């Protein structure tokens, strides 16, 4: 710090300022002394006050701190001197390098000016020679360009003179596109010189064009021509400035008439099957569908719509309606087709063909949004197919049950009721499994139309089974004669009124209801849970679509009702027989019978018929003895009488028999006898 007080001459001060301004270190990188020793100015700034800094440092620091600060500042001064020395050396090296570079540049520039003067002379010489060549060839170039223009004009003139002959050749070969191209190319010349120089050519060309227009009109309205050919004819007429707007309605009518030829033919689609589990067969099937004449007709129709749209750009609304009509007709045919007994493979073939047509039409008329439009129509068709399948299943079960109505004399089997029961069980269980497998093919198929309907199909299948079993319960009541009000409407069970219904059929229905409750419903529930879980489109607020517990309750109740109905029918026949026996004769004048009456034989026949029917349908069961606990303490009933009769018959003493009889009568009057007990599904 003492060196700052020594006066410096002006040269030394100027050199120090220059070096300081050029090599001054970054103020941000210097240590902040003021932060360590109070709020003082930085030591490296121009506003640094040495006296103030020393006074504050002496006031705030002790001797040891002052000595430490002295050592630090001495080290910093030494480092700064070293850095300054290195900077001076580096500056000298740069000055030396710059001096060498200037010397080399000076030596290289020597002689360059003479070379530049030589280059300028050569350029001027080339320019003068080029001007001479252009001057000498100018007249010839002008002459050549004039001859070229004359040649092009002669070609055009020759083309105009040859145009009538060209048009005549095009008419003979029916190359109307080339004829229109030639005539439209000559139109500017005819407009400019058609009334003077080329009057004859213009008149002959117009006559040929009139013939072409007439032929194109005839081709446009010819039914033998394809739709694409008629569209091309309309385009050519438009190029000839013919008023084609008048033809718009007629051509659109032709397109509407062609929709009838594009309707799907069910006889062609019945042979189309889709093997969902075999990818190789799927490819073959799809190839066969694409190779059908229907595919070619639809593609031709799509091309005609594309051409029609080009001819009449403002016809988008009519074309959208036309494309939607095609889809509507396809699904109307599908709805009629699914009413028949078809498999899911046949339905997949129809839907795959429709979806191919939809995608093809969507490529050229995306404004119609045909995929979404066809999705709405497909919902109706597929839902109707699901309902129709359950209707056919219900009819199969009814047909199997109606075989019971054959009289025993006409039946070929020894046990007709047992055969009918087994056939009905198979129709219910195996038929339901086949229906689920059929629906499963719809879910597993990768057709874009069905992928979007997957959740709907799951709900429809579950709802279909719920409605099917309810309808089956109604059908059971109808067949048993307990629901005569609807028999006239359905017309399915002619001759199944209560007086004509066989009791065996009612017994078969009762046992079939037990089978549905205990076997069929659990099996179908497992299959639905495994393959048809999900759905939920119908909304959770509506509850589950398939409720097996409710179906089990329905058929449990139906089985009990039908079993009691069978008992009532059997006992009514016996009661009628007894009533006739006891009401017909005059018992006052009746003689004492000497032999067994015919009524006994008839009575035994009725009992034997009931036993034969029961043995075919119901299991044997355990022989249940009536005990006190069975009838609230009663020890006597109609079931316990045979046992006591046997005991009484084995008694050889008159006294013991009378005592037993008295005891028996006493208990009859003291205790209530249970008559109407719950009937079990057994022979006993």
From TrEMBL:
What residue spans carry the region label Disordered?
621-657
UniProt biased composition (Low complexity): 631-641
The terms describing its cellular component in GO are: cytosol; GARP complex
Q: Where in the cell is it found?
A: Golgi apparatus, trans-Golgi network
- The protein's superkingdom reads Eukaryota
Which Pfam families does the UniProt record give? VPS51_Exo84_N (PF08700)
| Database matches in InterPro entries | Vps51
What biological-process terms (Gene Ontology) are attached?
Answer: Golgi organization; lipid transport; protein transport; retrograde transport, endosome to Golgi
Which key words are in the record? Coiled coil, Golgi apparatus, Lipid transport, Protein transport, Transport
Record carries keyword Transport? yes
State where it is primarily located: Golgi
Name residues in a coiled coil.
63-129
Keyword Protein transport applies: yes
Role description: Acts as component of the GARP complex that is involved in retrograde transport from early and late endosomes to the trans-Golgi network (TGN).
Assigned protein family: Belongs to the VPS51 family.
Spell out the PANTHER family in the cross-references: VACUOLAR PROTEIN SORTING-ASSOCIATED PROTEIN 51 HOMOLOG
What quaternary arrangement does the UniProt entry report?
Component of the Golgi-associated retrograde protein (GARP) complex.
* Name of this protein: Vacuolar protein sorting-associated protein 51 homolog
According to its UniProt entry, this protein's organism is Theobroma cacao (Cacao)
